[in-house]
Amino acid sequence: MNKKLLTSILLASVVFLFVNTQAQDRVIHGVVHTFDSIPLMDVKVKVKSSKQTVHTDSLGRFTVSTRTDDKLTVSAKGFFTQKVKLEEKIKFAAINLNLKPGDKNREYAIGYGHVNDKDKLNALANLNEKDADFSQYSNIFDLIKGRFAGVQIINGEIIIRGQNSFSSSNAALIVVDGVPVDGSIIQSIPPAQVKSINVIKDGSSAIYGVRGANGVVIIETKRGND
Questions:
Q1: Which of 3, 5, 108, 186 could bridge 78 with an S-S bond, Cβ 3.0-4.6 Å?
Q2: How far apart are CA 93 and CA 77, in angstroms?
Q3: Do 124-221 and 3-96 fall under one CATH topology?
């Protein structure tokens, strides 16, 4: 075989192996929570390309090796399974698993050891579109009113009874799809577009700082694939 041809073949093989190795050896660190604040332990995280499976630690953390544009399947008993697409620039994945509606699933979450602090989970009130027909309400205030114990709508503000304000307002902090918003904004969200509403009533809201001192209302809206 021609020496120049042999050299070219060897060089091409080295480049192919390098590119292939680079495509596979991407390390992704991540954390899994529920209700945006409670870490979930022993959650199964599976890599699509390699079938590698790991479980989160006591703080909800995990580390996996993936290919470029790989996918993760994240699952735990009592929670909706979530598929996460890892785009090329992602190095850290923050994943929030939604608890399935019903007391039985809360028992699964605690009984299977996914939630270390059961008091925090039990302090959360949840309303899911599977629990009620959201489309029958004219606005989100009407949807919330009467559905959560101790929660009131006063002068266009959501008030969680028993909270002590650190400011001039007693209104709860409102978070829509992970972003804190002004209370007036939620009036423009059609109830039919709401996927779930979660109310944090006690010290679990401390993760939101002073702004969460009056409690937190977490609203998740439907996405394109919902």
A1: 108
A2: 20
A3: no
